[in-house]
Write a structure and sequence with these properties.
With about 140 residues, this protein is of the alpha+beta class. Helices cover about 20% and strands about 45% of the residues. The protein contains three helices and seven strands, in the order αβββαββαββ. This is Pyridoxamine 5'-phosphate oxidase N-terminal domain-containing protein.
């Protein structure tokens, strides 16, 4: 597969699997949690509350790891390493709002609502026991 095909396959995985695992560092130890992810083909976005531990962890260490796409019926997923920033852009918050987030936030205008913007630095497409570097 060429790089464009690999990149498109990774985008397809993200489009089909919005829930994945975000790992951050907490007191020099990894901490992982399930999150909902969206993308603009350049960056990943995830919705969170400004008061969560992950926001503080990212402020202290912006390096993150994301796993997206694996389930019992498929053998492929992506592993992404990147840098996260906290984003409070009103237009982006409206764009990535999803009603499934209501248990945690009161809507796109909730003052505690922010986005994690993840800029990929290294992405691998894993298919069975084969790993292919996308970037």
């Amino acid at each position: 597969m060429n790089q464009d095909t690999l990149k498109q396959e990774a985008i397809n995985i993200i489009d089909q699997n919005h829930v994945g695992v975000l790992s951050t560092m907490q007191e020099n130890k990894p901490y992982a949690r399930y999150m909902m992810f969206f993308h603009d083909e350049q960056q990943l976005y995830s919705v969170t509350n400004k008061e969560t531990h992950k926001v503080e962890e990212i402020k202290n260490n912006p390096n993150v790891n994301v796993l997206l796409g694996y389930d019992e019926n498929k053998t492929q997923y992506i592993e992404l390493q990147g840098r996260a920033t906290i984003v409070d852009d009103k237009e982006l918050k409206k764009k990535y709002w999803d009603e499934q987030l209501v248990p945690w936030l009161n809507g796109p205008d909730d003052p505690e609502y922010c986005l994690l913007q993840i800029t990929p630095e290294h992405v691998e497409l894993v298919q069975g026991n084969h790993e292919k570097t996308i970037m």
